């Protein structure tokens, strides 16, 4: 350790993981420096991820609902989209949050340094800012450099009509024909935004279903809605080449029915993200990444060097902001001498599509693969009054319970507000709740939350029979 380091803790990357770590460590009394290449804090999530996407999804949801109400006796006239205003509003939502972070950093006396950082050795970081370079020495360090979009082989991102999620969120025009490559969360959220704004949207997915890995019963409900919103959805299909012409992009695809080609005005590449573990001087500090580019950490978020920690998208799946935040807090506490460890039983995921899909813990397929005997409780929303009044009658709540212990091991919800509702299932898993614990809990009526209680009750009947 250097005799007089510039700080107790240096945090590289100011996304949800990095700023949470920096703030927690400062609260615990450490002298903290937070380094990011951008002057605005918040990382991908606040600036070009979670927040701007949710603002746009809300806007199209309001528009869709206004149109739907026309069939139920309230008509507003055809909604008009003003892209400049929509973009300005989205930016203002982001700015309120990022300004808030700047204030929180100042309050805690966290020093923010702007520039690209690279480890020089295990106790110092070289920062290249605009016209200025600095070397910062540290006692301990947390790496939180996040992830970047993957570019599949054969696709040249050089043409400005071929965009990644950041480009898609800029929304400088509404293309007539919009292709989304990748039927995962990000691809489907952006497909929802663009179809809502009036583009003819096509989705291409390599796997045999949308949202690969998610429970089939949930995906089926989303698929029904997407079939109405989208022009076409191709599964088991690969984009092999994109040819840029003056007027359009010709996209070659290879699917189960052979090769084909179609023209689009804009193409979003959303095939996944890879961790930013390169170019940050890991080798200089005696560290390395695995084949997928992740840095290995233990439950204290420690890397192979005991005083260097890593968190967030950089250390593994799921690449989600709430995972980064929790890991950031643990790393900060361990840096401060506390004995914290990562011990979450479950991490929820949400696709903020219309309808929303949320899931946590095991799916049926995973439970079967792990040889776990389970009982399931399903509650279709067609029997829930609140869901019907919200136009969410297609929704579904599904819970899985371990047959032996009766405890909830997984759950999935599809329907309006699924992302909010899943929190109860996450808490139930964390607390080891059994079906009766959820079913006997009085839920307010009429709400969507009743579907969680009803699904648990449905399973409780079967579980009681087993006892
Ligand atoms: P990041 O947020 O990626 O932050 C890393 C920071 O490090 C960046 O600011 C970067 O500039 C900086 N950095 C990297 N290298 C260097 C360097 N060498 N020097 C200096 N600075 C550096 N997650 C959710 O939970 N919910 C959602 O709804 C959601 N929606 C999303 C929508 C989109 C379109 C995208 C792209 C992502 C979404 N995510 C969502 C994922 C979420 O954004 C990430 O999981 C989260 O941002 C990860 O946080 P992090 O702290 O690990 O890294």
UniProtKB/TrEMBL annotation:
Cofactor note as given: Binds 1 FAD per subunit.
GO annotation, biological process: 2-oxoglutarate metabolic process
Cofactor(s) this protein requires: (R)-lipoate; FAD
Catalytic activity: N(6)-[(R)-dihydrolipoyl]-L-lysyl-[protein] + NAD(+) = N(6)-[(R)-lipoyl]-L-lysyl-[protein] + NADH + H(+)
GO molecular function: dihydrolipoyl dehydrogenase (NADH) activity; flavin adenine dinucleotide binding
EC number(s) per entry: 1.8.1.4
Keyword Oxidoreductase: yes
Keyword tags: Disulfide bond, FAD, Flavoprotein, Lipoyl, NAD, Oxidoreductase, Pyruvate, Redox-active center
Keyword NAD: yes
EC category: oxidoreductase
Misc: The active site is a redox-active disulfide bond.
The family this protein is said to belong to: Belongs to the class-I pyridine nucleotide-disulfide oxidoreductase family.
Protein name, UniProt field: Dihydrolipoyl dehydrogenase
Organism whose genome encodes this protein: Halorhodospira halochloris (Ectothiorhodospira halochloris)
Encoding gene per record: lpdA
